[in-house]
Amino acid sequence: MRPCNSLKLEFLKNWIMGLQRWSFSKKEMGILERKKAIKLSADIAMASARNGTTRWSRALIANAYSKHDKHLVSKGASTEYSRRIRSKKILKRSCRRIRRRSKGLVRERTRILKNLIPGGELMNEGSLIEESLDYIVSLRAQVDVMRSLVSASEVDR
Amino acid sequence: MELNEGMAGTGSHKTASERDEVAALESLQFTDEIRRLMSAPATDNASSFTALLELPAPQAVQLIHSPESAKLIAAPAPSPNVDDFKGSFHFPFNSELIERATRFSVFTGDGNINDNNKTNSPEPTSYNSSASLQKPVKSEPTETESSQPLVSGPTVENRSIKRKDREKVKGSTKKSKTKAKESSDDADKLPYVHVRARRGQATDSHSLAERARREKINARMKLLQELVPGCSKISGTALVLDEIINHVQSLQRQVEFLSMRLAAVNPGIDFNLDSVFTADSGSLMDSNFSGIVMPTMWPEVQLNGNRQQYPQQLHFDALQQPAWGKEEVCNNYITPENSLLSYDSGNSASLQSNQLKMEL
């Protein structure tokens, strides 16, 4: 399934705006920092292209807001998500029985998938699959856009 | 007439309307059963589902539907679900259903079934029984829920509660519904999932709920299988999950790698901006290469982030015509307010002017 162009465009616009904000703040950056900045802004751009309709996007934005530089993400958008996620985490922690053994192959893999998808630990199995579906599509769009960027930037060399 | 309203209301969203019809048709069939059997409700003290299940099926159906229709009358209709299903779900709608579900356990001994039936039809609920009178029951494909893979999260839990209650109800009526062998299941669109028990399958509430859940998960897994390349041949959940995990991991690694490459490609992030604006076109693959040459002069001059918006703007003016001529979605550009990323006024001015020109 090829991601649609509108998604890619949306992502691109968000990304460029994010990068512009970065460039305003950081003048000198090492390559690793720059890569982190690019990746982070790309992830946030992809998540915001979803406009809060999916859980993984909200979780991603909330995580980015809490961990990294706060100026990239607008405050109003993420506090609500982070609040919701925090309450969910508290609920899960209180209800969870101590059962760390993951019996069965499916359980094990579900656990791995939960770790992969942002905010996946808080979802039940049905929505996890749904979210991973959307996440894969978004990731593909992201990869396509980045790849075309790279090819475009290297053409004139 | 309610018929026209119902049809007009459900015309916009076909799949939801199909489910509505099936649901409404089911309720109609139940009321027919009730009429046919017409035995007064034996017990009035059924305050729990277990008591309900002890009753013979028709009486149970009667009991269920008398309070249900009573509640349908009592609770005014929520906003039509058809429109809701398009995007986000309204919370007040769900809370009302929660109330309904809690009130389910209270059975009012309604002997007046006919009145309830009559008042049932003009009820402008989503289960528009009058609308379904004309249309035949279509077997619902379980994959139509895949047409809306994005579901807002918090409402799913509420709906699963509703689903379980409904399924307990429907499970007790298996005897009367043995002819209907198909089971319809969608937990995403309707707050109630009407699952008909298949012939020869267990009908207690837990297994029904479990089966509904399983079917939903299986439908999604099928979608995933189609999405991930090379997964359609594999059978078995574990291996498919394996493939999905590999795919997600490889995509994430690709993103990392590409971002590293982009970081290394030029000593300025600004470079991306210029080349992107010129290179980007409808398909994002056929870049306007001639246009790239000019703006690449710029980033070598300005290495730090304190870019002047002014020269950037000049370039966009010059290069916009060829590059954006093929733009297909001019109305898809995000205005600064829409995006979740907030940015300062300096940026917004230039970008807005850019967007204005892009809409040519």
Structure report:
The complex is a heterodimer of chains A (157) and B (360). Chain A has helices spanning 5-25, 31-49, 55-67, 75-95, 105-116, 125-154. The longest helix of chain A has 30 residues, at 125-154. The model of chain A has no long low-confidence stretch (mean pLDDT 74). Chain A is mostly helical. Chain B has a domain at 206-273: MYOD Basic-Helix-Loop-Helix Domain, subunit B. Chain B is built from 15 helices and no strands. Chain B has helices at 2-10, 14-37, 49-54, 57-74, 81-84, 91-103, 113-120, 129-132, 154-171, 205-227, 237-265, 270-279, 289-301, 309-324, 345-358. In chain B, helix 14 runs parallel beside helix 15. Chain A: It comes from Hibiscus syriacus (Rose of Sharon). Chain A: Keywords: Transcription, Transcription regulation. Chain A: Residues 6-66 form the IBH1-like N-terminal domain. Chain A: This is IBH1-like N-terminal domain-containing protein.
Summary, kept brief:
Chain A has 157 residues and is mostly helical. Chain A contains six helices and no strands. In chain A, helix 1 (5-25) crosses helix 2 (31-49), helix 2 runs antiparallel to helix 3 and helix 3 crosses helix 4 (75-95).
Structural class of chain A: mainly alpha
Quaternary structure type: heterodimer
> Per the principal axes of the C-alpha atoms, what is the gross shape of chain A?
globular
Q: Most extensive interface: pair and counts? A: A-B, 85 and 83 residues
Structural class of chain B: mainly alpha
What's the helix-strand series of chain B? HHHHHHHHHHHHHHH
* Number of contiguous helices of chain A: 6
CATH architecture of the domain at 206-273 in chain B: Irregular
Instruction: Name the overall outline of chain B.
Output: elongated
Number of helices of chain B: 15
Number of domains of chain A: 1
* Proportion in helices of chain A: over 70%
Biggest sheet layout of chain A: none
Which blocks of ≥5 consecutive residues of chain A have pLDDT under 50? none
Kindly report the average pLDDT value of chain A: 74
Distance between the termini of chain B: 47 Å
